[in-house]
Structure formats: structure tokens, C-alpha cells
Amino acid sequence: MMSDTAVTLFLERVRADGHRPALRLLAAGGAPRDETLTWRAWAERARAFAAALVANGHRPGEHVAILAGNGLEWPVADLGVLMAGGVSVGIYPTSAPGQVRQVLEDCGAAFVVVDTAAQLAKVRAVRHDLSGLRTVVATEADGGMDVIAWAEWMAHGEAALGGVPEIGHTLAQRTNDASPDDTAILIYTSGSTGEPKGAMLSHRTILASAASIRDTLGLHAGDRSLSFLPFCHSAERIFGLYTRILVGMEAGLVPDHTRVWKAAEAFRPTLFGGLPRFYEKAADVLRAERLTAAGDERDRWERTLTLGTERSRLRRAGQPVPPGLEDAWRTAGATLNDRARALFGGEVRLATSGGATLPLDVAEMLDALGITILGGYGLTEHLCAVFNRPARYAFDNAGPPMPGTELGIAEDGEVLLRRGALTFSGYHGRPRETADAFTDDGGWLRTGDLGRVDAHGALRISGRRKELIALSNGKKIAPLPIESALAQDPWIHQAMLYGEGRRFVSALLVLSRPELESWARRHAADPDDPSVVHDPRLYASIQAAVDRINAGLSNPERVRRFALLHLPFEGDDLTPTLKLRRAVIAERHRDRLEALYQEP
User: Fold this and answer.
1) Residues 6+ away with beta carbon under 8 Å from 8
2) Model confidence at 2, in pLDDT bands (50, 70, 90)?
């Protein structure tokens, strides 16, 4: 029988590969110890979790929330919820108590699973507001009467399966009764422009998306990947969890994302998927090694990068790489290429990046060292939109459509995606917002992004429709491409444009730490002193960088004034997917921004 739900897909994988490792919890990734689950063991635990749900009164279609990091509990609970006929809802582990309340209240979760005392405290702080929440399961239960310990919950499920035949029959019936169009999971959008909404993804969407990803990247059962991005995010849930189930890939679970490099060394993934920041850190390590190299080693660096850059240019243009160039690059860069690969575990064959624009200099440097990073574009509501391919890729566009996706461009430049199996079903409990997400005829998903399709069929994103800055003269500015260009300058780490209702565009600029330290040494300044950003000599250097970017912009787009920041945008300044929370940042730095519009 062909799989038509995420549960039947999972059970088919278990029947085919039950003895093979499926999940490996990594001590190198911050876990207390290494632990491996085979596909069959994963299924047995998930079924025990599902049995405990049914024994505790869970009804088909009820929502179960998971507030946890990347440990074994997440995939066990997630599949258990689906086996019980429920809807699985992820909550970001970094959420504040108020945000936890918001999600639990919006989805009406009857059960919630938490994995640490800190997460349990968040739920307890808001539980009095949640009349529908019946049960809290905690892996680090403290003996309180208001929670059930994970071990006790799982033992309860196992006992129910062994001693109450009706429980097993109920689970089998719920699996058989599930429809491909039933909602399987809710993924809450990050809320950079408003209140988070729960995007409903059906079993059909999950299976179609996983197949599109497999076919786009050429994945196979021999591949291995790390799981360190939050499971509650669409990328890790679909590109990660369910695609791994479809393909039969083994996953290394990394509870502490700051340990990802140690985890890669231990697990040796063949596929590495991450956000741009992870690749920036890898490039920083390699740049530092290049700067300290001397003599023959320095010459080797320069020759490898020169040859590798030309090789990359040809590959991106779809042109053959002459055998002489390929041999010279491999000979000159053998040790350096191995060093770059070692950062990712030594066996990576595919690397992907999403969530934000990967800086061009990072992509080009890593590609010159043999680490090709494939970028794409998608959104929670239609994750598998466009993607670059291993055999034909570019760094200045998001790639052509993925299998099952049709692109369109509206008259105002908004990117549209044809509604189909890859598209979400709507926002939970929000019919008006669901209707607004589509064109008037309901046939196309409105992405909110501006872009165009180039002559090769690749999508080029130019900005965010909802994030356009409307100047007082009526001109509208797309901030994202300008911010990306600014951040590619060696002096600038992050940039945020500002100017809604103003007569010109201004910017908040976060300085690159290496450049700041280098400048401070030359000028006998203290890079750790926050007041260093007010030094006129430093300002002059940054002005030159801004002028370089402005030279390629139209007059209304040019950054006329800017303020320098000593500390990066982080924490509340960013969404869980590392997008700028513009309103939060603008309010935090209101005085500095206002000063930019005062006459000298």
C-alpha cells in the first residue's frame, strides 16, 4: 500500500528498515550521553506515547504541543501524536512565557510535553490562563502534582498496550481512519510583522513536500544529517524529520546548537543544512587561518582560492571545468579542502542554507574550497518553492521551482505560488487571514515577497512587499537587498534600514568585530568600549563603506545617514528564524534614529 499519511509512511519505513539506526542522540552535541534508536525502537516508543494519550482521554483531532529541544522526546512525541490521530504543535524552546501562553491558547492544546525545568516553569506561569490544557508531561518532572513525569507517562502507555486491548484497537482504527487531507501539524509563523499564526499542514502536504525535497537534492538512504535547528520550525520539521522518514536517513540529534561543530566531527553528516550564520562562522575560522598562514602555506591558500574561484564561476555558469583546472585545484588545495570539509565533519556532500540571504563572500569562499552551499526560498505556508540544484547553482538567486511548484509574478511584483499539494491548508481558527493569504480566485498563494523570474527560470527576490519603506515623497524602498549589500562589506556585520514616512533612508549598522578590532589596534582604541562607535575616525571609515553601496543605488534608496551600534542584533531583536524584528529594534534605538533626522 502506498503511504497516504505521515503515520503510514513512518510504519512502512519501520517495516523496511526496522533494525537500522534512525535517531542518534549525540553527547558531542550536548546530550548527557550517546543514545541510538532504531526505526523499530522509535516506533515502539511513539506507539507507547500514543497509547498514553488515548488512555488519558485524547480525542481524534485534539492538539498536543511540544515545548522541547532537539532530544529524542521530540520525534517520539511527534509521531505518537499522529498515531493517536492528533495534531502536533511545536513551540520554540526560546519562547517567553507569554509567547508559550499565546500558542497554547490559540491552538487549544489539551496536552503539552516539556523537556526541562525551565520549560516547565514557563507552562506553570501561564497555566491558570489555559482552561483547555488538561495534562503536562515533563521529562524533568519535580514531583509536583500538576505534571506527569515522562518515564511514568511512557510506562503508562506501555501498560495500556499490554493490558487493555481496546487501546491497541483504537490506535489502529485512528491510523486507518486518517485522511491525507487531515491536518497533521501546526507550525506557528515567527511573527516578524504581527501576531504568530498557526499554519495547518496536512498529511498530503507533508508527504508531497518530503518527496519534492528528496527529488530536488537527490537524497538517499545512505545520507546522514544533523538535527540542530528547532523541530518546531518548518525547515527542520519538513526538510528534516519527515524527509528523513521518507528517504530512510539517519539523524544525529544536537540538543545544544552551539555544539554543532563538535557534533559534526562525531557524527560525520553527508548532508548539512543550516542558517547563514553557521556558514559565516565556518568562513570566519578559515579566514583566520588564511591570515595567519605564511610562506608556502600562504601561497597554497592564494593559489587554491584563485583556482577555486574560477572553478566556481564556470560551474555556476553551467560551463565545463577544464580537466587541467580541476586537477590543479585539487592538487593545490588538497589539504585546505580537507580542512574546510573537516569543519562539517569530513564527509559532507551537500550543504544547504535557508532562512535569510547567505552573504556572497561566504558562499564564494566556501565554494572555492569545495563546500558548495545551495540556497533556496520557501515559507511556512509553502516550504518547497524554489531551490538551487547540485548540478546547477547560483549565489545571486534562489533557484528554479522545486517539483510540484509553479511560480507566478503579480502585476505589483509580488511572488505567487500556485495552490496545490505543497501548500498549507490555512491558518488555524483564522478564516479571514486564510482568505487574505490567497489571491481573490483562491488559486495562488500570496508570499508577500517581491521578485522576478530570470531568463533561466530562477527566482530573484528583491524585497518584502509588507516591509517596503514608504518615504514621505511617496517613493517605496525595499530594504532587504540594500541591507544584504551593506552586510557584505567587510566593515559591516548587520544592517537595518529605517525611514517610514521620512524624507530619506537611514540605517542602523552593526560593526564587524574583526574589522573593529583591527581598526582599534591601529588607532590605539579599545574595541570593547561601547563609546568607540562615536569616534569620528571610525565613522569616516564606515562612511566610505556606505558610499560604496550607495553608488549602486538610485537616489531615493541611498542611505543618507546612519548610526553605529557596538552590539549585534540578537535575542528579542530577531525572530526564531533570525529575521529582524524591525519594530522592536526601532523602538530600542528610537533616540539614535530620531537624531538622524534632526538638522545639524
Assistant:
1) 1, 175
2) low
Locus of grid cell 511540544: 66
In terms of C-beta distances under 8 Å and separation of at least 24 residues, what long-range contacts does 495-502 make, across chains too?
496/569, 496/580, 496/582, 496/585, 497/469, 497/559, 498/469, 498/586, 498/593, 498/596, 499/469, 499/471, 500/469, 500/470, 501/470, 501/471, 501/472, 502/471, 502/472, 502/597
CA angle, corner 48, sides to 45 and 54, nearest 5? 145
Burial class (CB in 10 A: 0-12, 13-18, 19+), 32: exposed
Residue extents of the structural domains in the chain: 6-269, 273-371, 375-465, 468-596
Cell numbers at 428, concatenated: 488555524
Task: Establish whether domains 375-465 and 468-596 are of one fold.
Answer: no
The owner of cell 585545484 is 329
Q: Which three cell numbers stand for residue 267?
A: 557524527
Q: Report residue 507 as a C-alpha cell.
A: 540605517
CATH architecture for residues 375-465: Roll (2.30)
Alpha-helical regions (H) of 473-580: 479-487, 513-522, 536-550
431-460: average pLDDT: 94
Task: Calculate helix-pair angle for 117-126, 97-107, nearest 10 degrees.
Answer: 60
C-alpha cell, 484 = 544584504
The per-residue b/e assignment along 463-472, b for 16 or more CB within 10 angstroms, e otherwise, is bbbebbbebe
SS3 38: strand
CA distances from 482 to 38, 85, 134, 360, 463 (A): 48, 47, 49, 13, 9
- Mean per-residue pLDDT, 241-248: 98
Looking at the predicted structure, is the pLDDT value of residue 193 above 60?
A: no
HSE on the CB side for 242, CA within 13 Å? 32
**What topology is assigned to 6-269 in CATH?**
Rossmann fold (3.40.50)
Q: What mean pLDDT is reported for the chain?
A: 92
pLDDT tens, residue by residue, 283-327 = 999 999 999 999 999 999 999 999 999 999 999 998 999 999 999
150 membership: H or E segment, kind and range: helix 150-163
For residue range 380-409, list pLDDT tens digits in order: 999 999 999 998 999 989 999 999 999 999
Highest mean pLDDT among 267-271, 286-290, 464-468, 583-587: 267-271
User: Edge-to-edge strand order for the sheet containing 382-387?
Assistant: 35-38, 21-25, 250-253, 224-227, 271-274, 350-353, 373-379, 382-387
pLDDT band at 600 (very low <50, low <70, confident <90, very high): low
H/E element holding 212? Answer: helix 203-217
Residue 81 has pLDDT above 50, yes or no: yes
The grid coordinates of residue 374 equal 545551495
Q: Give the domain 468-596 fold.
A: GMP Synthetase; Chain A, domain 3 (3.30.300)
Asked if residues 88 and 58 have their Cβ atoms less than 8 Å apart, the reply is no
CA 371 vs. chain centroid, Å, equals: 19
Per the rule left: phi > 0, alpha: psi between -120 and 50, beta: everything else, 408 is beta
pLDDT score, position 467: 75
Inter-residue contact 182 to 175 (CB < 8 Å): no
Nearest to 359 by CA among 537, 187, 484, 517: 484
Distance (Å, rounded) from C-alpha 419 to C-alpha 444? 5
